[in-house]
Amino acid sequence: MARLLVVDDEKNIRRSLETFFLSCGHTVATAPDAHCALEAMAHGGGFDLVLTDFRMAEMNGLELLKEIKRRSPDAAVVLMTAYATVENAVAAMKAGATDYLSKPFSLQEVQHVVERALELGNLRVENRALRAALEETPILESRSPIMRTLIETAHLAALSEATILLLGESGTGKNVLAREIHRWSPRADRPFVVVSCTTLSEQLLESELFGHVRGAFTGAVKDKPGRLEAADGGTVFLDEIADLPVTLQAKLLRFLQERRFERVGATSTVEVDARIIAATNRNLELEVAQGRFREDLYYRINVIVLSVPALRERSEDIMTLAQRFLATAAARNRRPKLRLAPEAEQALSHYRWPGNVRELRNAIERAVVLSRGDTIRHEDLPDSIFRAQTPPRPAPESSVSLEEVEREHIRRVLADAVTLEEAADTLGISVATLWRKRKRYGIE
Ligand SMILES: Nc1ncnc2c1ncn2[C@@H]1O[C@H](COP(=O)(O)OP(=O)(O)OP(=O)(O)O)[C@@H](O)[C@H]1O
Ligand SMILES: [Mg+2]
Fold first, then answer.
1. How many angstroms is it from 355 CA to the middle of ligand 1?
2. What is the CATH number of domain 311-387?
3. Strand-strand pairing, 3-7 and 27-31
């Protein structure tokens, strides 16, 4: 069943088409001229198809078609013309008509043309949803003040040439943000190149980043530029920078200072203009303290630091993200009506999300596939989330001081955590602060 609008200045035609379409099970509105048609459309007609006469006083069918297309390029319009000249037909199709009918026509012809036009219209809508799903535009609007400040700062940082360090737990969206920063930067139309510092051996990583010349090592059969050169004029995203081997740290440091380096095995120097964005989910200060990361490099990349908050620190956004992931996953799976049951929503908002946005996205995608009918139920969610209960908060006794509560809370978190960093992270304070508090409260 579809919503149709019939536009014709002849009352008889309006009436017979209306009767016919109603008998086909469609909803029908009629308009005697283009003006009334545009009015009906403007007032939320939500028509799937407009069937319009060609010759009408004031504004003819072709002009109406153009106006409709100007307002909503996806609208499906079929023109009916008593003067089935080739020119008319060509003009109509050029202006975006889905099809045309030449008068006089049989009802069978009308039905055929209308069904086909509706089918095409559906395809178009579906394609748009599919495209949106595949494009995966990141969701950057946020209700969380920390996140909003972060995005604002990232916008400003994007405009500068400064090296940017992205910190944050796994799955918070560091890669996503790095790409956005590049898009917001004056380098947007130049390459954005990602290099993961974890996946390759030291030798491969060096050649990947800086390139090599023929004969530099076994297998180096010809000269090869590295990713830094490939990114000339653009941005290099160094993912998991804490894993960069120490020897390469020195080479990167020199690049950051002088913007030049040598390909592996080369004697000549290459100059490259690439902006560096680095990311890690590790505590770089700790890596420096433990001698795994060069202090001078740390200070070089520690120019603009953006800390992407964990999802539980911006719980305001959980439902927005969930709904958006649901919309795209549902479109991809061709189940546009899928909704979250209230208990499922509740479980999602109460869960702690150790895997952050990535975990939320995966949970929704899985639920979309597992769910039946039009609802995602509580039990369609992964077990860990399904089981997530809001721990009943023990009401602190009014005679207990704030310090007492803090002491008890820190003691409990420390008992549960494996490392100090983890405890500090849970508490949302730095390791140094945790040290001080632990000493002050005499917690072992
Ligand atoms: N703002 C966002 N909008 C849409 N999707 C997002 C957003 N942030 C994160 N995601 C989703 O979460 C996934 C993880 O994001 P990303 O890879 O950027 O995290 P990360 O912080 O780099 O994690 P890791 O430290 O494990 O590399 C992405 O693939 C994406 O699907
Ligand atoms: Mg990442």
1. 10
2. 1.10.8.60
3. parallel
Cβ of 226 below 6 Å from ligand 1? no
Q: Is 378 in the pocket of ligand 1 (CB under 6 A)?
A: no
**pLDDT digits (tens), the chain, 444 positions:** 889 999 999 999 999 999 999 998 899 999 999 999 999 888 866 788 999 998 888 899 999 999 998 887 778 899 988 766 677 777 888 888 888 888 888 888 899 889 888 887 776 666 666 665 555 688 898 999 999 999 999 999 999 999 999 999 999 999 999 999 999 999 999 999 999 998 778 888 999 999 999 998 888 889 999 999 999 999 999 999 999 999 999 999 999 999 999 999 999 999 999 999 999 999 999 999 999 999 999 999 999 999 999 999 999 999 999 999 999 888 878 888 899 999 999 999 999 999 999 999 999 999 998 888 889 999 899 888 887 754 444 555 566 777 888 888 888 888 878 788 888 888 888 888 888 888 888 887
Closest C-alpha residue for ligand 1 atom 30: 358
For ligand 1, atom 16, the nearest C-alpha belongs to 173
**Residues in CB range of 374: below 8 A, 6 or more apart:** 335, 337, 338, 339
Domains 3-135 and 311-387 share a fold: no
CB of 361 within 6 A of ligand 1: the answer is yes
Choices 3.40.720.10, 3.30.450.40, 3.40.50.2300, 3.30.365.10: CATH for 3-135: 3.40.50.2300
Phi/psi at 159 (nearest 5 deg)? -75, -20
The span from the CA of 32 to the CA of 14, in Å, is 8
Give the domain ranges of the chain.
3-135, 145-307, 311-387, 402-441
Using CA atoms, how far residue 185 sits from 241, 307, 321, in Å, is 22, 19, 25
Q: Given 3.40.50.2300, 3.30.365.10, 3.40.50.300, 3.30.2140.20, which CATH number is that of 145-307?
A: 3.40.50.300
331: nearest Cα among 137, 183, 142: 137
How much distance in Å is there from the Cα of 186 to the middle of ligand 1?
23
| Beta strand spans in 98-191 (E) | 99-102, 164-167
Distance of CA 127 from the midpoint of ligand 2 (Å): 30
User: Which DSSP category does 45 fall into?
Assistant: -
The residue type at 316: E
